[in-house]
Amino acid sequence: VYNYAHIGNLRSYIFMDILRRTLEYNGYAVRHVMNVTDVGHLVSDADTGEDKMEKGSRRTGLSAWEIAEIYTEAFEQDLVMLNILEPHIVCRATDHIQEQIDMISCIEANGYTYRTSDGIYFDTSKMPEYGRMAGIDMESQQGGARVDVGEKRNPTDFALWKFSPPDAQRQMEWESPWGVGFPGWHIECSAMSAKYLGTFFDIHTGGEDHIMIHHPNEIAQTQACYGTNLANFWMHGYFLQVKDEETGEDGRMGSSQGNFLRLQTLIDRGFDPLVWRFFCLGAHYRSKLNFNWESVAGAGRALNRLRTAVYEWGEAGTADENYLERFLAQINDDLNMPRALALTWELVKSDLPDAVKKATILEFDRVLGLDLAAWEPAEEVVPQEVLDLVNQRQQARVEKRWADADALRDQVREFGYEIEDTGQGPKVRPG
């Protein structure tokens, strides 16, 4: 939380939300924990450079504690606007310093650490199975052979506790058995997971960038302390791609890449926030998703068609079991949302009664999360002269003056409106 979340970050949280909704749709009880990294994430994954919170503080002129509050609140507002279910537990790294110190002490007692001039490090050479998730060959990782690792014994070793620089005052630092400093990035996840989910839980999510370093480090810490792999399943969402205007090549979206778009950016361009959720549903979470404004606009039009159809179907009836079974098969096939969306459109175009279609799609929406039941069209203020023409046409129809009625309909169209004749009387909508 050293800056605003961008829409690429938010794609990962939409994926996570679909996972939770799918599990709950299947009847599982879910305990959902989300951590907030408000200290310890250095600008380099190699444990070098400054803490991103300190860097953000210098950029904004606010304290590290202030920007943590500002950006955490902004992120939580983004989640609400995207209809992402609130986690059962939101835990901050700065509120769990003691738990992190205790876990580092455990790892140290089991012989997996060493000390350098700038911190306490995890010795990955003591764990032959380190990096299995990332396919790292430990035998080929010879410290200093090809890269400068400083005081680290091995290139894959990582910081558990960093010492505060002797010549600078940090805003975020704590006393520890090893000296004043702050925790490394990886230890918070292992420590808080163990506290709220136990030392071996079901599912851990993250981005594809976590496969090579962050998640292997989490596993190593937990193995060293508790003897478990931390989680049984590891699920990774892939990056949002955006085209570089100069090179024409696709690359990941990120603040360091200079192609940073917030959810607020889309709102400022006139998009409903749920258009971004709908857009993300169109690609599998384990595939890269290409961003461009034309595609987002297309998603907006498609979502509006879906919303309008569901609204105009009236009251919901009984859901169609065949469609529900097919939907369940798609979402349970590794969260195959593109196929689930295709099935949704098939249902929209089907010959089933409107009440059945509405009930079925509202069941789908328990996972899609588009809040279709609550949507209503914006109230259109129809000019009085148009309403007068509609009333005159209705009177002409009552009197069976069909030619006059047709002529009045044409006049209404000249104003940009269409008349729909219903059992409850004529309805007027923009043409």
What does this structure look like?
With 431 residues, the protein is an alpha/beta fold. Helix content is 43%, strand content 15%. β12 and β13 form a beta hairpin. The longest helix is centred in the C-terminal third of the chain and has 20 residues, at 293-312. It is elongated and about 95 Å long.
> What's the rounded overall pLDDT mean?
90
Gap between N and C termini: 46 Å
Fraction of residues in helix: 40-55%
**What is the count of β-strands?**
13
- The structure class reads alpha/beta
Secondary-structure element sequence?
HEHHEHEEEEHEHEEEHHEHHHHHHEE
Largest sheet: 4 strands, antiparallel
Summed up, the helix count is: 14
Question: What fraction of residues sit in β-strands?
Answer: 5-15%
Search tags:
single chain, alpha/beta, four-stranded antiparallel β-sheet, three-stranded mixed β-sheet, 13 strands, elongated
How are the elements arranged and paired?
Layout: H1 7-25, E1 33-36, H2 52-60, H3 64-81, E2 89-92, H4 97-109, E3 113-116, E4 119-122, E5 158-163, E6 181-183, H5 185-197, E7 200-207, H6 214-226, E8 230-237, E9 240-243, E10 250-252, H7 263-268, H8 273-281, E11 289-291, H9 293-312, H10 321-331, H11 337-348, H12 354-368, H13 384-398, H14 402-414, E12 417-422, E13 425-430
Parallel strand pairs: 1-2, 7-8, 9-11
Antiparallel strand pairs: 3-4, 4-5, 5-6, 9-10, 12-13
Helix pairs in contact: 1-8, 2-3, 4-5, 4-6, 5-6, 8-9, 10-11, 10-12, 11-12, 13-14
